[in-house]
Write a structure and sequence with these properties.
This protein has two domains: 141 residues, Aspartate Aminotransferase, domain 1 (Alpha-Beta Complex), CATH 3.90.1150.10; 243 residues, Aspartate Aminotransferase, domain 2, CATH 3.40.640. It has 14 helices and 15 strands. The chain has a seven-stranded mixed β-sheet, sandwiched between helices. Strands 1-2-3-13 form a four-stranded mixed β-sheet. Strands 11-12-15-14 form a four-stranded antiparallel β-sheet, with helices on one face. A hairpin with a 2-residue loop joins strand 1 and strand 2. Helix 6 packs across helix 10.
Length: 426
């Protein structure tokens, strides 16, 4: 196709977004420098319809831990596709059984049972139901700035009003406390509280790493006060932060854990919530069909099995830790040259947030990165934070190129804003 034909095809696609998907999203994506259709991806590289290549430093918001189209995951899914892509839900499913056993073996503490679903939000919904069933109490303590999904229960646990205003009243019983403050959490406990739900590192809150020992304190409080601990590892789990699960950095084990994103290997959508035997028996003991899903993808389970095997065999959590140190070190060098625009670099492993002085410079920098062939995004609950979550398999060369592009895009954004200020003063 000629360039003119390609541009016409893209315009038509954008118009379909405006007419049939989301007008606001179409405008936002076009403004952000992504006015093209994606056509190919492999590893940490994405190509658009014009043949332009991009280094993927967003990684599907954590979904592409193994990058795009990892050959082992693709092969497993293709094999299952030729056999039986979706379970009948009437016979036993070998892929589900094998995946549940594998997750039990690699998960912290006494987590034993798994329920498979399709997304992180759905996993959180199941976890909340399990907590209420096991504790017998409706109250759940969550954190300000938290993000657990946008379905009604998960949204009730999340900690930003912007996403909640249109949907009041939400599910009752949730209390929100400052993240990282264990004393505030304990003070919020009442006789009606049965559980606590936290992210080990807040993702959409702006890649907020809690103080050392925070999760340990929370675990101790829950044990002493008789509360269940739900850890949402949807974004942090499966190697992203330098350990297989982020809670393992403090040796903490939850009673219930939520997974998704990377679990499907970047090929299939898959979520899960896991729990101890006591919690599971409280939820399903009297009725094994009290919480179900109709579609159970055996392809997704095969993808997840292969994903976990690759993570273990190639020791990708350790690789994420080493590459994360490199990435944050280089980003802090950029910060030292642009202290007025770049306030902080923080994170763990390959879950890194760069906090800008204000959201405008962040948005301009994201657009400048897109023009230079690098994909990043801001965090939903804090638009001032630009996130870097590249695949754990990304090369050092691509990572360095991404930081070089970030520095150049930031410099351009500063110049643009300085020009606007000069015009306004004139």
């Amino acid at each position: 196709m000629s360039d003119q034909d390609l541009e016409q095809a893209v315009d038509e696609c954008i118009e379909k977004y405006r007419n049939y998907l989301s007008p606001g999203l179409a405008n936002l994506m076009k403004f952000g420098g992504f006015a093209a259709t994606e056509v190919w991806a492999e590893g940490a590289v994405v190509r658009d319809c014009f043949g332009r290549e991009y280094i993927d430093c967003l990684g599907g918001y954590g979904a592409f831990a193994l990058g795009h189209r990892h050959p082992r995951v693709v092969a497993a899914v293709k094999d299952q596709l030729d056999r039986m892509p979706v379970s009948t839900r009437t016979f036993f499913s070998q892929p589900q059984a094998d995946l549940a056993e594998l997750l039990a073996k690699i998960s912290p503490g006494d987590l034993q049972y798994s329920f498979f679903c399709h997304s992180g939000a759905e996993a959180v919904e199941g976890a909340l139901k399990a907590a209420r069933a096991a504790s017998g109490k409706p109250g759940i303590i969550a954190a300000r700035g938290a993000f657990h999904g946008k379905t009604l229960g998960a949204l009730s646990a999340s900690g930003r009003d912007l996403f909640k205003r249109q949907f009041q009243p939400l599910v009752p019983g949730f209390v929100h406390v400052p993240y990282g403050d264990a004393d505030a959490l304990e003070k919020a406990i009442t006789d009606e509280c049965g559980a606590v739900i936290l992210e080990p590192i807040q993702g959409e809150g702006g890649v907020i790493v809690p103080p050392d020992g925070y999760l340990t304190r929370v675990r101790e409080i829950c044990d002493r006060r008789g509360l269940l601990l739900i850890l949402d590892e949807v974004q942090t789990g499966l190697g992203r932060t330098g350990t297989m699960f982020a809670c393992q950095a403090e040796g903490v084990a939850p009673d219930i854990m939520c997974l998704a994103k990377a679990l499907g290997g970047g090929v299939e959508p898959l979520g899960a919530f896991m729990a101890t035997a006591d919690v599971w028996n409280a939820l399903f003991g009297e009725n094994p069909t009290v919480h179900t899903t109709t579609i159970a993808s055996t392809m997704a389970c095969r993808a997840a099995i292969e994903t976990v095997n690759v993570l273990l065999e190639e020791d990708l959590p350790a690789r994420a830790a080493a590459l994360g140190d490199r990435l944050m070190g280089r980003l802090r060098e950029v910060q030292s040259k642009h202290p007025a625009s770049l306030e902080e670099v923080r994170g763990r492993g390959l879950m890194v947030g760069v906090q800008m002085a204000h959201k405008d410079i962040g948005l301009l920098t994201i657009g400048g990165l897109a023009n230079r062939g690098v994909i990043v995004a801001y965090t939903l609950n804090n638009p001032r934070v630009v996130r870097f979550e590249p695949p754990l398999i990304i090369s050092e060369e691509l990572l360095d190129r991404a930081v070089d592009a970030f520095e150049a895009a930031l410099a351009d954004a500063e110049a643009m804003l300085e020009g606007v200020e000069t015009e306004e003063q004139g």
